Amino acid sequence: MVQKLDMLQETPSQTAGPYVHIGMMPTYAGNAGTFDDEIGTSPISDGAQGDVIEITGSVYDGTGWAMRDALIESWQPDAQGKFAGQDGADPNVSGFCRFAADAESGEFCLRTVKPGAVATAGGTLQAPHIALWIVARGINIGLQTRIYFEDEDNSNDPVLARIEQRPRVDTLIAKKTGPGQYRFDIRLQGAGETVFLDM
Amino acid sequence: MLDGPLIPRNRAIHPDPYDPGYKTSVPRSPNLPLLSLDSTPSEETGPTFGHSRLGALDNNLILNWTRGAAPAVGERILMHGRVLDEHGRPVPNTLVEIWQANAGGRYRHKKDGYLAPLDPNFGGAGRTLTDEYGRYQFLTIRPGAYPWPNRANDWRPMHIHISVFGHSFGQRLITQMYFEGDPLIPLCPIAATIKNRAQLDRLVAPLDMAASKPLDYLAYKFDIVLRGRRQSMFENKPEGM
Ligand SMILES: [Fe+2]
Predict the structure, then answer these.
(1) How much of chain B, in percent, has pLDDT values that exceed 70?
(2) Helices H, strands E: what count in chain A?
(3) Inter-chain touch A137–B232, beta carbons under 8 Å
(4) What is residue B241's predicted lDDT score, i.e. its pLDDT?
(5) Which architecture, in CATH terms, is B60-225?
(6) Which of A2, A123, B169, B182 could join A75 in a cystine, given CB atoms 3.0 to 4.6 angstroms apart?
């Protein structure tokens, strides 16, 4: 026998299920007023510094169907690369948002500010990105991924650099469709499958 | 200092993303491996929520839908426990959100058309912040089991959905709490996505008579463990990279 490691194990995940919205986005679920102050309704408030942008997209299942029930959370720093709560962070950037696919079209839209670049603990500068976490019925453990931007220099990003099959890098890069407008589609499975992260 | 990168997830304790027994997971699970990397500030920081954002009845699902005017129908229960990290340290001031069906097994959601009626006094959502010891509690009613379209006759055991933030976005977790003694647990394809029975047992809350209140409610205890972080002492630029 050896000494016991004094560690606990993470609690196992379970799917968020089809009714996740009543708990996490009650207004979207038709239950406005569940909470007086719903969280995650916008990552920015009036006066946020930087470029306000809109990122539109869909989450596609393995058959190519745009899922109507996906729920996404995003987390990002402000335009200077500071996260909410850090010294000097923009008080008008909470950085956190919850958004869901439209029940009719299957499209989501995230309105936020373009994030600044953030270095890793080792000092490597990462390209500007928004972290995403995707949950839905049929997703047994939430999926992590990132949105990078076509009009930024992504060539030295340490996460993108680790993607062996270079064409797959494209799955993490939002395409510019107009001034302040981007398109970012997420494919859970099959052709063009999004790179999902384990970080 | 435990402020290095997040401890990598042990995927073996989690459900299989692809599980033919849970049909919807078949087209919604990635085919390709995840890209595993050390966490960065995007995963090591996360949103915080202050007490000022919570209402007084937010963690009382018996009363919150009617704002205290009338209680929900069902068996009154206290759901309580602690949020800890893998080092066993309490996770204080973190948001815990729950949602559930009513006593008849019906959700207040536009997509739920089950025969059981809505309870006009029950919304089915609650939230709270853990205290300085990582403790949380909800007063609610025991949710009913309900049928769902999967195989021809599948039923969900009684369960409460739980979402926890922790202190960093990489700790984010959604799971479900089941109830001790429910005979539907071993029959449920969603519970069975967790292949290790000992791990599934960790989602089954025991009856906790010591925390129940005579002539008022029964209690169930449900502790939650989030990812921890490594020591940062030897964290520096990786050698040779
Ligand atoms: Fe459920």
Answers:
(1) 96
(2) 1, 10
(3) no
(4) 47
(5) Sandwich (2.60)
(6) B169
